[in-house]
Amino acid sequence: MSRLVKLTDSQYEMLCDWLETHDIQLDRHTRNQFRDALAIARVIERMHPEVVALHSYKPRTGVARLIDNWQIFNARVLTKLNMGITRLDMQQLATGNEDALESLLYGLMVADYSLLKR
Known about the structure:
Elements: H1 9-21, H2 28-33, H3 37-47, H4 63-78, H5 87-94, H6 98-117
Helix pairs in contact: 1-6, 4-5
Keywords: Cell projection, Cilium, Flagellum
Protein name: Sperm flagellar protein 1-like
GO cellular component, one term: cytoplasm
């Protein structure tokens, strides 16, 4: 069962505000880049370099290879943030499912705020 669900309108607005503070615009190009966990890892690394080791990822194309990066990101980052995802979630992210991406980014936003409080 997927852990990534469609955001409410208020959650989506909060996400857009957070993305704007980090100079990220969720346009078609960015959504396509975010199919690869490497792009998400780069965003998190900019905010919290202690959480992500970019050398673990290789730029990928093709759904199977994109899922490989999502497995690494899930094991090394998301589980540490208590937001591990399922194989189905990885498939949805690798194929560019907008709801899955927005849900993941929302979870990362919440994790970002809690890391800042430490």
